[in-house]
Structure formats: C-alpha cells, structure tokens
C-alpha cells in the first residue's frame, strides 16, 4: 500500500477521553468541521466498535465526497482501523492513541491502494496533489478532535 499521510497531535486529555470523541461516529459531524453528514449503516451491539459501518459526506477538493467506511479492528483505548473501497481503490486508515505525561498523542495514518488500471493511472498523475490536500484535511480533523477532547475533560 502507498502511504499517503501520517499526522500526529498532542492532546491535553487522557486516552479514554480522546477515545470517547473519536469513536462517537454518530456525532462526528458535530466535532469534525470537514464532515457534513454521517449516516450509520450497520450499528454494533456492546462495547466493541469493530464492524460499525457508516456513510460519511465531506467536502473534498471543492466537492462533496461520499464514502462508505467501516471499522475493521479496534482495541480501546489504543487504536482503531477503518476501510473504504471506491473509485477503484482500497482506502485504510488507523487512529493510534499513545498516553503521554500531559495527555495523549493521537496519530492518524491513511493509506491508498489503487486496484484498477484507471485508479493506478489517476494515482500516478494526481497522487501528489491528493497527498497534499489530504495532509491538510487530516491536520484539521486532528485539531477538531483535540478541541473536543480538551473541552470535554
């Protein structure tokens, strides 16, 4: 897989408080300014979030982008992984929480694996532009999460 982006932020809140913010997918549009709408497609019972599936609408490069995403693995309050498949590519991301002396270091990693010929060609031609834009989006998402977690603590 091609690593597109990896960004980290220090948050002045315990990992459990950060975990509560990042796993509240239903209310993510109220926390993350780039998300316009969330629609839960498959809820999961109990304490696990693995298997949770949702449709997310956000603005991407001036247009609305809609992706169906799901959580493939999780261990509270340490990490969760997501997957989405669209436009001939497989997208995976991982949110990692590391305790620090002052709170939590939250890292988001995003990967793209072009599968079809068309997706591979687009990646070759525009991958650099997508990476630059994605780094900005991830940075803003992390800043929004930081504000929410620190305000809740």
Overview of the structural elements:
The protein is of the alpha+beta class. The longest helix is centred in the last third of the chain and has 36 residues. Helices cover 31% and strands 46% of the residues. The chain has a 7-stranded antiparallel β-sheet with strand order 1-7-6-5-4-3-2. It starts with a strand and ends with a helix. A hairpin with a 3-residue loop joins strand 4 and strand 5. The model has no long low-confidence stretch (mean pLDDT 93).
- The end-to-end distance, rounded to whole angstroms, is 37 Å
CATH superfamily: START domain
Estimate what percentage of residues fall within beta strands: over 45%
If you compute it from the alpha carbons, what radius of gyration comes out, rounded to the nearest whole angstrom?
15 Å
Question: In one word, what is the shape?
Answer: globular
Widest sheet, order of strands: 1-7-6-5-4-3-2
Number of domains: 1
